[in-house]
Design brief:
Shape: elongated
Helix content: 40-55%
Strand content: 15-25%
Largest sheet: 4 strands, antiparallel
Radius of gyration: 37 Å
Number of helices: 28
Strand order of the largest sheet: 6-5-14-16
Distance between the termini: 57 Å
Number of strands: 37
Structural class: alpha+beta
RNA sequence: GGGCGCUUAGCUCAGUUGGUUAGAGCACCAGCUCGACACGCUGGGGGUCACAGGUUCGAAUCCUGUAGCGCCCACCA
C-alpha cells in the first residue's frame, strides 16, 4: 500500500481538477431550507466595464476565505455572486468602441441599438469576470448569479422607486449638471477632468441703488453677469456691513438684485470680498441661492449660446458674449481692471471641450430621514465596521444629508418609472383609479402630471388623444447597487433566501465606496425591509503599484489575476492576497513585464504607464515586446508580455514546501494503520507538535473572527514551515525507520490532516489535492480517535482542540533543545566544519536540565550532529573549545587542532562588550528611583534577573578567555 | 481647503493594552546536492523606528508641531 505524490505540485492541473470536483458536487450551492446557522455574503458586484484586476482578486479571496472557513465550522453558507451594469462607465466604453470601429455616435445608432450593443458587451465581459472569479477559487453559488439589470433586480428597483415616490421620498428638482456644449449632453463628474487654462480675472463694479456707492467684485466668467441674482459679502465684513439689505443694479440688463450676507460662500480675504451670485451656473452660488431663497436665471442654451431674452447678447456664443460684456462694461465705466490668471477648468472627457454648469430637472431622494436611519444603525452598533475608524467616514458623509440625485442622462440602466402627461386628473382617475400600482402628483411648474408606476404604462394608456410618455433618463447605478443585499435574494417577494440569509453576515469591500455604496445599502435596506443589510463591514486595504499609486485600467498599472495564476498558481495568488490584508496599510506591489521571449522580469517604469510605451526592449535578450496591460486588442506584430511580480514567489514556495513535506509523509506511510492515540503517552515531540497545533488552531480562529487575514497567514506559515517541517518532521524521521513507526505515522498523518483543514480556506487547491491523495492511503485518520474523513476538504470540520493539548512545559523543553542545536550549528558554520561530522559537546547545566538533554540526545545527534554528550553541573570546559552561553546552560564544543584562538578571543571580547552595554543600561534603570518605585514589580524583578544572568555570563566568558589564552 | 490614513532593514510589510537585546519574506554574504523540498537546508550581516518637541520611571507605541506620501470629499468668485 504505497502511494506517491508526484514530484512537483502542478497548480494548473490541481485547479482544473478541483474546480470540476467542487462544481460537479455543488458544494457551494446554498440551501435555505437546510439546517445550520446562516452565514452569508453578497459579492460587491464587479463592473461589467472590463476584466478583473488584482484589487478584485484581493476582495474576493478574502470573501472566499470567510465562506470556506465558516462552512467548515458548520454554518449554512451562501456567497451570492453577480455583476453590476455600471451605467456611465459601461456606456462610455461601448460608445467609444462604436465610435472607433464604425465612426458612429450614439445618436447615429439610436437608443435601442446602442443598448443592444451594450448588452452584447455585458455578456462578453460578464462571462470573463465570472471565469476569473472561478479561477481564483471563489466558492460562490453560481446558480444564483445576479446582474443589477436583470429582471429580479429590476423588480426590486421598481418597487423601491414606487414606494419612495409614494411616500414623498423622491422628488423632482433642479440641479446643476456638467453640460458638454459640443456633444450637447450632460456628463458625470467622473467623466470630466480639470485642466489649467490661461484665463483672466476681471474686476467690475455695480452701482448701489439709491446711493452713490459702488460694490466691487471679480469674476473669471463675465458673461454670467446676465444671470446674477445677488451680490454676497461676508456677514462680519465691516467694509460692507452698511450695504447688506440694499440693492445693486446690473448695468447691462438693468435688473436690481439684493446685497446679501453669506459666510459660507464668501471669504473676506479673497478678491474684493464681494461675490456676484449666479445661482444657475455655479455650484456654490446655487447652494447659496437655496440658503437665501434666490431665483434661478438660466442664461445658456444647450449649444453654449446665450438664450433668448438677453437683448443683444442672445444667440451669441458665450465666449463672444464674454468679450462683448467686458467691452460694454468698460464703456459704461464699470470696469476696474483685469489680470491674467491660470484657471482650473473642468473639461469633458469625451469632447475635450470646457464644461458649462447648467441647470436642469433631475430626480432626487430626500436624505434627511433615510440618512438618519443609516446613521443610527451604526451608532447603535447594529452595523459594525472593521477597522472601526471607517465608521467615521460613513457617519461624516451621511451627516451632511445631501439629497441624492438619482437621474442620469444615459441610456444604459434602469429607466426611471415616471410618465408625464398633460391630461386632467379625472383622466388619470378614470384609467388608474382602481389600481394600487400607479400613483401621481402634480408638477405645477410644467403644468403636467408625474405618474409613477410599478408596471410599464403604454403610450396609449389614456387613450389615443392623450399622450403619456416615459422619462428618458435612467437611474444612477448606485440606486440598484444599493438594493443588492436584498434584491439579489428576491425581495420584495418573501423568499426562503431572504428569510434565511438576510441580513447578511459581513460585507467585504474597499474604503472608496463606503459612502457611495455601503451607506446607501444600509439606507435602502432599512427602508425596504426594516432590517440592516449586514452585521459587519470589513474594509480591506488597497493594492498600489510600485510607485504608490492606485492600480487602474487607465494608468495601465493593473495586473490581471489570471497572469499571476498562470505563472505562480492560484494558491500563491491567494496566499499573497491574504498576506497583504493588514489592518492599516495599503500595500505596494511593484509590477514587472515578463519578457515573452526569455521570461526575464522587466520592472514596469512610470513611462510604461498610460499605454505611452508601446514597445519595450528586453534588457536580457534584447528582443522587443509590448508591455502587458489593458490593451484592447492583440498586436499582430508584437508579442504582449504577461505581468508578474516577485511578491508571489513566497506563496508559490510555501505551496511547494507543504507539498514536499506531504510527499515525504507519503513515502513513509507503508503499513499505515489507523488507531486510537493516547496523547499523554506519546513521545515528547508528538506532544510538542500537538501542543503547537492546538495553539495555532486557536490563534488562527481568533484572527479570522477579527478579520486579521495577514496574521492568519503568518500564523500558518510559521507553524507549517518552521515548526512542522523544520523541526517536527525532522524529529520524527528516526521513528519512521524503526519498528514502532505505527504511532509516528498516525500522528504525522493526523497533523497533516489538521494542516490541510487549516490551510484550506487560504490555499484550497493545494489542500484539496493533497486531501484527495491522502484519501487513497489513509481515509481513516485523526487524533485522538480516527474516523473516516469527508470526501472533500471543503466539507471537513474546522479544527478545535482541547485546551489540555497545550503543554507549556513541553514547549519550553523543546525550545531549549532547539536553542542548543542552534548554538552548535552556529559553531559548526563559524568553523566551516563538515556537516556530517559528529561533534562531542559538553554542557554545563543543572541536574534536571541535564537529565532532560540526555533524554533528547537522539534529536541533538540528528539535528545538531552531536556525537558524545556530557552534561551536568560538574562539567568542565574542555581545552581549545568554542563556547556558547545560554541562560540555562553553557555549551562547549571541543575544537582540538581546529580552533582559531585569536578569532575566538576577539569574538568573546565583542560579546562581553555587548553584554556590558546592556548591563549599563539595566543598572541605570535600576538606579533610577522612579523606575523601582513606579514600574510594576514584575518588570523590575525581570530586570534584576537579567542583570544577574548577564553578570554571570560575563564571568564565564572571561574565565573561558583566560583559559583559552593559556593554551587550553 | 476639509476628513481619514501612512512614514520601521536595500525592497515589501508586521509590531496586540507603553516594559528584556524591534521581527518576517525577498534581496545580500558564507557553507551545504546527507533519500521530502535549490521554489531547498544551515548560519550570518544589515535598522538613530521620517524629523523636532512633550507626557512618562520607561516611547516604534501616547500627545503636539514640521516635512513628505496616499485616498475620499469640496473645489473657489
Amino acid at each position: 500500500m504505497s502511494s506517491e505524490l508526484p514530484k512537483q505540485y502542478e497548480p494548473q492541473q490541481a485547479k482544473q481538477e478541483c474546480l470540476k470536483f467542487w462544481e460537479d458536487n455543488k458544494f457551494f450551492n446554498a440551501n435555505p431550507l437546510a439546517k445550520g446557522e446562516p452565514f452569508s455574503i453578497v459579492i460587491p458586484p464587479p463592473n461589467v466595464t472590463g476584466a478583473l484586476h488584482l484589487g478584485h482578486a484581493l476582495n474576493n479571496t478574502l470573501q472566499d476565505i470567510l465562506i470556506r472557513w465558516r462552512k467548515m465550522q458548520g454554518f449554512n453558507c451562501l456567497w451570492m455572486p453577480g455583476t453590476d451594469h455600471a451605467g456611465i462607465a459601461t456606456q462610455a466604453v461601448v460608445e467609444k468602441r462604436v465610435k472607433e470601429e464604425e465612426g458612429k455616435s450614439r445618436h447615429d445608432l439610436g437608443r435601442d441599438l446602442l443598448v443592444k450593443r451594450i448588452w452584447d458587451w455585458k455578456e462578453q465581459y460578464e462571462k470573463r469576470i465570472l471565469g476569473q472569479l472561478r479561477e481564483i477559487g471563489s466558492g460562490c453559488d453560481w446558480d444564483r448569479t445576479r446582474f443589477t439589470l436583470d429582471s429580479v433586480c429590476a423588480q426590486a428597483v421598481r418597487s423601491t422607486f414606487f414606494q419612495m415616490f409614494k411616500q414623498n421620498y423622491i422628488y423632482r428638482g433642479k440641479r446643476l449638471v456638467n453640460w458638454d456644449t459640443h456633444l450637447q449632453t450632460s456628463v458625470a463628474d467622473d467623466e470630466t477632468f480639470t485642466e489649467t487654462v490661461k484665463g483672466s480675472f476681471w474686476t467690475f463694479r455695480y452701482p448701489v441703488v439709491g446711493s452713490d456707492e459702488f460694490i466691487r467684485f471679480s469674476t473669471t466668467r463675465p458673461e454670467t453677469m446676465l444671470g446674477d441674482v445677488a451680490v454676497a459679502v461676508h456677514p462680519s465684513d465691516e467694509r460692507y456691513a452698511h450695504l447688506v439689505g440694499k440693492k445693486v443694479r446690473i448695468p447691462l440688463v438693468g435688473r436690481e438684485i439684493p446685497i446679501i450676507a453669506d459666510g459660507i460662500l464668501v471669504k473676506k480675504e479673497f478678491g474684493t470680498g464681494a461675490v456676484k451670485v449666479t445661482t444657475a451656473h455655479d455650484r456654490n452660488d446655487y447652494a447659496c441661492g437655496l440658503r437665501h431663497n434666490l431665483p434661478l436665471i438660466n442664461i445658456l442654451a444647450n449649444d453654449g449660446t446665450i438664450r433668448d431674452g438677453f437683448g443683444v447678447y442672445s444667440g451669441l456664443d458665450r465666449y463672444e458674449v464674454r468679450k462683448r460684456i467686458t467691452e460694454d462694461m468698460e464703456k459704461l465705466g464699470f470696469f476696474e481692471g483685469k489680470e491674467d490668471r491660470d484657471i482650473e477648468l473642468a473639461h469633458s472627457d469625451r469632447s475635450k471641450t470646457p464644461i458649462e454648469p447648467i441647470l436642469s430637472d433631475q430626480w432626487f431622494v430626500k436624505m434627511d430621514h433615510l440618512a438618519q436611519l443609516a446613521i443610527d444603525a451604526v451608532k447603535d452598533g447594529k452595523v459594525k465596521f472593521y477597522p472601526e475608524r471607517y465608521a467615521d467616514t460613513y457617519l461624516d458623509w451621511l451627516g451632511e444629508k445631501r439629497d441624492w440625485c438619482i437621474s442620469r442622462q444615459l441610456w444604459w440602466g434602469h429607466r426611471i418609472p415616471i410618465w408625464y402627461s398633460k391630461c386632467e386628473e379625472a383622466d388619470l382617475i378614470k384609467v388608474f383609479g382602481t389600481r394600487n400600482d400607479v400613483c401621481w402628483i402634480r408638477d405645477n411648474e410644467n403644468h403636467q402630471w408625474l405618474v409613477c408606476a410599478l408596471n410599464d404604462i403604454p403610450a396609449d394608456a389614456l387613450g389615443k388623444d392623450l399622450q403619456i410618455v416615459q422619462d428618458n433618463d435612467v437611474l444612477d447605478t448606485w440606486f440598484s447597487s444599493a438594493l443588492w443585499p436584498h434584491s439579489t435574494m428576491g425581495w420584495p417577494e418573501q423568499t426562503p433566501e431572504l428569510q434565511k440569509y438576510y441580513p447578511t453576515s459581513v460585507l467585504v469591500t474597499s474604503r472608496d465606496i463606503i459612502t457611495l455604496w455601503v451607506a446607501r445599502m444600509v439606507m435602502t435596506g432599512l427602508f425596504n425591509t426594516g432590517k440592516i443589510p449586514f452585521h459587519k463591514v470589513y474594509i480591506h486595504p488597497k493594492i498600489l503599484d510600485g510607485f504608490g499609486e492606485t492600480m487602474s485600467k487607465s494608468k495601465g498599472n493593473g495586473i490581471d489575476p489570471l497572469d499571476i495564476i498562470s505563472r505562480y498558481g492560484a494558491d500563491a495568488l491567494r496566499y499573497q492576497m491574504a498576506h497583504l490584508a493588514t489592518e492599516t496599510q495599503d500595500s505596494r506591489m511593484p509590477v514587472s513585464n515578463i519578457c515573452p521571449h526569455c521570461e526575464t522580469l522587466v520592472a514596469v517604469k512610470q513611462e510604461h504607464m498610460y499605454m505611452r510605451t508601446r514597445k519595450v526592449t528586453c534588457p536580457n535578450c534584447k528582443k522587443v515586446f509590448r508591455p502587458g496591460g489593458p490593451w484592447p486588442f492583440p498586436d499582430p506584430e508584437l508579442l504582449t508580455a504577461c505581468q508578474g511580480s516577485e511578491r508571489f514567489e513566497q506563496g508559490r514556495n510555501f505551496a511547494t514546501k507543504l507539498w514536499n513535506a506531504s510527499r515525504f509523509l507519503f513515502l513513509n506511510l507503508e503499513g499505515y494503520q489507523a488507531g486510537n492515540i493516547e496523547i499523554h503517552t506519546l513521545p515528547l515531540e508528538d506532544q510538542w507538535i500537538l501542543s503547537r497545533l492546538q495553539r495555532t488552531a486557536e490563534e488562527l480562529t481568533s484572527h479570522l473572527e477579527e478579520f486579521r487575514f495577514s496574521e492568519s497567514m503568518r500564523t500558518q506559515y510559521e507553524f507549517i514551515w518552521s515548526e512542522f517541517c523544520d523541526w517536527y518532521v525532522e524529529m520524527s524521521k528516526g521513528r519512521l525507520k524503526d519498528e514502532n513507526k505505527a504511532v509516528a505515522q498516525r500522528v504525522l498523518v493526523g497533523v497533516l490532516d489538521a494542516i490541510l483543514r487549516l490551510i484550506h480556506p487560504f490555499m484550497p487547491f493545494l489542500a484539496e489535492t493533497i486531501w484527495q491523495a491522502l484519501e487513497e492511503v489513509c481515509p481513516v485518520r485523526g487524533i485522538p480517535e480516527p474516523s473516516r474523513v469527508e470526501k472533500s476538504v471543503v466539507l471537513a470540520a474546522w479544527p478545535k482542540y482541547p485546551a489540555s493539548w497545550f503543554q507549556p512545559q513541553i514547549e519550553a523543553r523543546i525550545t531549549r533543545m532547539q536553542e542548543l542545536v542552534r548554538a552548535i550549528r552556529e559553531v559548526r558554520n563559524r568553523y566551516l566544519l563538515d556537516g556530517r561530522k559528529l561533534l562531542d559537546i559538553k554542557v554545563r547545566c543543572s541536574e534536571s536540565i541535564a537529565t532532560d538533554l540526555k533524554s533528547l540526545k537522539a534529536f541533538l545527534t540528528h539535528l545538531g550532529g552531536v556525537g558524545d554528550l556530557e552534561c551536568g553541573p560538574e562539567v568542565l570546559r574542555p581545552s581549545q573549545s568554542a563556547s556558547h552561553l545560554h541562560p540555562d546552560f553553557e555549551v562547549y564544543i571541543s575544537l582540538l587542532g581546529l580552533i582559531d584562538v585569536q578569532a575566538e578571543l576577539v569574538r568573546m571580547e565583542k560579546t562581553i562588550v555587548e553584554k556590558q552595554k546592556q548591563i549599563l543600561a539595566i543598572e541605570s534603570k535600576l538606579g533610577n528611583e522612579g523606575f523601582v518605585a513606579k514600574a510594576p514589580p514584575k518588570v523590575v524583578a525581570l530586570q534584576r534577573e537579567t542583570l544577574h544572568d548577564l553578570s554571570s555570563q560575563i564571568k564565564v566568558i572571561s574565565e573561558n578567555m583566560v583559559s583559552l589564552k593559556q593554551g587550553n
